[in-house]
Design a protein that fits this description.
Layout: H1 2-21, E1 28-32, E2 35-38, H2 39-54, H3 66-70, E3 73-74, E4 82-83, H4 84-108, H5 115-138, H6 143-164, H7 174-184, E5 185-194, H8 206-221, H9 228-241, H10 249-254, E6 257-262, H11 263-269, H12 272-279, E7 286-291, E8 295-302, H13 310-336, E9 339-341, H14 343-347
Helix pairs in contact: 1-2, 1-5, 1-6, 2-4, 4-6, 4-13, 5-6, 6-13, 7-13, 8-9, 11-12
Length: 358
């Protein structure tokens, strides 16, 4: 969602600045479900959709060449080949519908954003403008549009508690939470090992990476739930030594920690093979895998309910499970909303005018 946020933020600035510079730029492009869609919001959603499409670009495709890339075809994950222009148009509409659905649902519940949510949205908006203001301006995206979009994201997050918490409209049962915990979340005792010397920042080559992974796999294989910490801590100095790095036994032991790994994090942060290895761990099993391009992960799967209560874990589970449910709810609600969009207005804000650099 953060990638979506950055892309959307960029597009928003465009409309805001254009409104004061070109009389031909419409103030709005119509409405969805009664929610007015400003030109800025439309541009933001369109820019985000283009950024999503760019992630699927082939080696011979250059998203920086916007007009050419819009005429090309991409193949989204698990999908069929589609023209980039069609992908962008459809994704833009989907995002606008999601936005409108969130606004409608939040209003239906008579809710107000908690000050903490507002402060966080304001802070993130300020950071985006400070770091990417030039790109936003080049695309005509205004600060207030970014801020409104950030508030919308905050409202979607707030809907998790408003709908699915114990005090919500439709509380999730303990059975549902437990099932999600057991089947959609991994509780790991783990340590990460950098594939570079932390003093010289020299990265491991292919042979060194293979050697470090082999040592990590040996440590995982020889450990048990009772000896995992001791075994891994004892192995870490030798793993670091492959890159001529030093690590004391005390520092090694201090690096071990416990945390949850969600299914979405598995998909986003690990290769398909590494994700399958971790997902296939039974409680009490350990493994070592590559973690992105710069680290190894040595992990032991634990049963969180052996040491923690469901009440203690409720907020953590709800955050993951509820986010997916609300996202699905908003997608469905958005698809059902009636749209009264002005094609002439949208034609004045074509994707071909998107700027990727400044």
């Amino acid at each position: 969602m953060k990638q979506k946020l950055l892309a959307l933020a960029s597009a928003l600035a465009l409309c805001f600045s254009l409104a004061g510079c070109h009389t031909s730029t419409p103030d709005t492009v119509g409405s969805i479900g009664g929610e007015e869609i400003s030109s800025g919001l439309y541009l933001l959603a369109q820019f985000d959709a283009y950024q999503q499409a760019a992630q699927y670009a082939g080696e011979d495709q250059d998203p920086a060449n916007v007009k050419a890339f819009l005429k090309a075809e991409i193949t989204p994950d698990g999908g069929e080949a589609v023209a980039v222009s069609d992908y962008v148009a459809e994704a833009t509409q989907e995002e606008l519908r999601r936005y409108a659905a969130v606004e409608a649902r939040f209003a239906e519940l008579g809710a107000e954003l908690d000050p903490a949510y507002t402060a966080q949205a304001d802070s993130y908006t300020d950071q985006l403008v400070e770091n990417y203001g030039a790109l936003y301006a080049a695309n005509g995206i205004g600060e207030e549009t970014i801020r409104h979009y950030e508030y919308n994201l905050a409202k979607q997050t707030a809907l998790i508690d408003l709908v699915y918490s114990q005090d919500g409209e439709t509380p999730l049962t303990d059975e549902e939470l437990t099932d999600h915990l057991e089947n959609e979340m991994l509780y790991l005792r783990y340590v990460t090992v950098p594939l570079y010397n932390t003093s010289t920042f020299a990265f491991a080559d292919e042979d060194q990476t293979a050697e470090m992974l082999s040592l990590a796999e040996d440590a995982a294989a020889s450990s048990t739930p009772d000896t995992f910490d001791e075994t891994v801590a004892a192995a870490l100095p030798g793993i670091y030594a492959v890159l001529d790095a030093e690590l004391t036994a005390e520092d090694a032991a201090a690096q071990l920690s416990s945390s949850f790994l969600t299914r979405s994090q598995l998909t986003e942060s690990f290769s398909e093979e590494a994700a399958a290895t971790l997902d296939g761990l039974a409680v009490g099993d350990a493994a070592a895998v590559e973690y992105g391009a710069t680290s190894l992960l040595i992990a032991l799967r634990l049963d969180p309910l052996e040491t923690l209560t469901l009440d203690a874990l409720r907020a953590t589970i709800l955050s993951d499970m509820g986010a997916a449910l609300i996202e699905a709810d908003m997608d469905a609600a958005g698809a059902a909303l009636s749209a009264e969009l002005d094609q002439d207005a949208m034609s004045k804000l074509p994707a071909s005018k998107i700027k990727m650099t400044v």
